[in-house]
Design brief:
Blueprint: E1 3-6, H1 8-17, H2 21-30, E2 32-36, H3 37-46, H4 50-63, E3 66-67, H5 71-88, H6 92-111, E4 114-117, H7 120-127, E5 133-136
Parallel strand pairs: 1-2, 1-4, 2-3, 4-5
């Protein structure tokens, strides 16, 4: 069975907003969910309440082994970010901000995993330079007022 990685945006949307339950159920039926060490780090970094911290700690325990970017992934990330930065005229801050997303994409590619994300903007740019399989998940539509 193929593997899938869930991006931070999916976890945050699910835990904080209650979104993506159907998407996650479908992913679990079709794939073995693997965890990116980069995603887990982002979740830990962003935890702002005790309840969230405990929930993320439990997720990290359940994750068991997380996929970690290798040396070659870090080098490829630097090259990819440099190319994107030159092409799009980015300042250093934007290049730093996208580094984790590039590492997540490269890790998914290395393992042949499908990446599920709600971050269409950054991962679309990354996909221009890095071949990886991605499924973009849109947040639910807001009800009309």
């Amino acid at each position: 069975m193929r593997a899938a990685i869930l991006d931070t945006s999916i976890y945050v949307g699910h835990f904080a907003m209650g979104w993506y339950a159907e998407v996650l159920a479908g992913v679990r039926q079709c794939y073995v969910v693997r965890h990116s060490a980069v995603v887990l780090s982002e979740l830990v970094r962003g935890a702002s309440t005790r309840a969230t911290t405990l929930m993320i700690a439990q997720l990290c325990r359940l994750a068991g082994t997380a996929w970690i970017p290798e040396h070659a992934d870090w080098l490829a990330a630097g090259s990819t970010i440099s190319r994107l930065g030159r092409r799009l005229g980015w300042e250093e801050r934007k290049m730093r901000d996208i580094q984790n997303d590039v590492l997540i994409a490269l890790t998914a590619r290395r393992f042949g995993a499908v990446l599920y994300t709600a971050n269409r903007g950054d991962f679309s740019m990354i996909r221009d330079l890095v071949q990886f399989e991605v499924v973009f998940v849109d947040p639910p539509s807001r009800p009309a007022t």
